[in-house]
Amino acid sequence: MTQRTDTKSSIIAAQAKENPKSSILEILGASTKLGLTAFGGPIAHLGYFRDEYVKRRKWIDEKSYADLVALCQFLPGPASSQVGISIGMMLGGMLGGLASWIGFTLPSALALMIFAYALKNYDVINVGWLHGLMIAAVVVVTQAVWGMARSLAPDRTRGTIAVLTAIITLLWPSAYGQLIVIAAAGLFGRFFLATSEMPETPLIGISISRRMAVVAWILFFGLLIGLPLLRAVFPSYWLAVFDSFFRVGSLVFGGGHVVLPMLQAEVVPPGWLTDSQFLAGYGAAQAIPGPLFTFSAYLGAVMNGWIGAMVALIAMFLPSFLLVTGALPFWDAVRRRPNFQSILKGINASVVGILLAALFNLVWMKAIHTPYDFCLAIAAFGLLMLWKLPPWVIVLFSAAGGALTSMFS
User: Fold this and answer.
1) Which of 167, 222, 303, 389 matches a 20 to 30 Å C-alpha distance to 153?
2) How many CA atoms are closer than 13 Å to the CA of 140, on its beta-carbon side?
3) Which residue ranges does UniProt annotate as crossing the membrane (predicted)?
4) pLDDT digit string (tens) for 277-314?
């Protein structure tokens, strides 16, 4: 079975090399669809990714997807974007990773640039259709938690790890606390989830060399340490902007809303933006799909037009590219070792618990307020699970239902 799965991964990688244009275009098309429909924040994005890449397109198997999620939970930056970039690199190398990032990021970045130009003084309110999008996120995350729990926490021990992780994460809502729980679960797995036989671990098939990975690590730490020094020695507005956004993208753990206070501390005190401009953009960011890190495009556009938007956006996501490029070539080898597989069993079970906690704390509590909300969520869940409708249909259905239920609640 392992040989058959490895062969399938090799065939996919070979096809990407033989016909790179069609492969890159396919990656771009799939990620753009997600960039237009993936509402609800990073945890919900992982659910959308799983449905599109694992279940529908079968570009990556469930185990490898879970391992990528585990890796990106350890890396600073936007975990969902890094997972998407990783899958793109798996299929099409560096160009595939770039295509995946562009497709997933560009729709929300362009939307926020438009907000910056035309709606910077507009206060986005919780209108019905926007609330419906949050309900869609509840449905998608619920499906992801259910599906991943069945494969990653199928027995009593790993199920207990998932439950305890969810409890600790809810009671200790800290990005660093989350990392500690993941590390503890991996340590438990190493000693108590060991198996005598090597579990099935398909090759990811990354076409990036280890030499390139080392170069990526050197560039990452070189820029992280060197940019502040250059900024101090050679004062420059553009260098200061690039340094600020690169540093935030390099050091924030947890992604999503965790990045907002760090960004505010970088752009408001220097006078690049006012508090009202920052909060207006934050409100606008809640109404669009895609990664919240594209909020940097709004900030850059307010600061210095479309050029500022591009500089801020690239600086914000560049650390993710360098980190993923540096980690993936070694990750594929490390994850196939028997001892590390035991560690991953514990880590993956803890990831299920983190998703479960996020379902309640980050999604459910913000979306389900009335019986109408719960009825809409049940209906959308039935359409997704029983009728097998694609997520983008669920998004449209929930948005329309949210607009309708707002008239009665």
Assistant:
1) 389
2) 34
3) 95-117, 129-149, 161-188, 208-230, 237-259, 279-299, 306-331, 343-364, 376-400
4) 787 777 677 678 899 899 999 999 999 999 999 999 99
**Model confidence pLDDT, tens digit, residues 356-403:** 887 887 678 878 989 999 999 999 999 989 998 877 788 889 889 988
- Alpha carbon distance 207, 283 (integer Å): 40
Decide if 325 contacts 216 (C-beta within 8 A): yes
Query: Domains of the chain: which residue ranges?
Result: 2-207+322-405
Contact 90, 329 (CB under 8 A): no
Distances (CA, A) of 190 to 158, 185, 229: 13, 9, 41
CA-based nearest residue to 128, from 399, 391, 408? 399
CA dihedral sign of residues 370, 373, 377, 379: positive
Look at residue 10 and give its three-state secondary structure.
helix
10 touches 204 (CB < 8 A): no
Which alpha helices (DSSP H) does 119-236 contain, by range? 128-152, 156-171, 175-192, 210-233
Give the whole-angstrom CA distance, residue 382 versus residue 388: 8
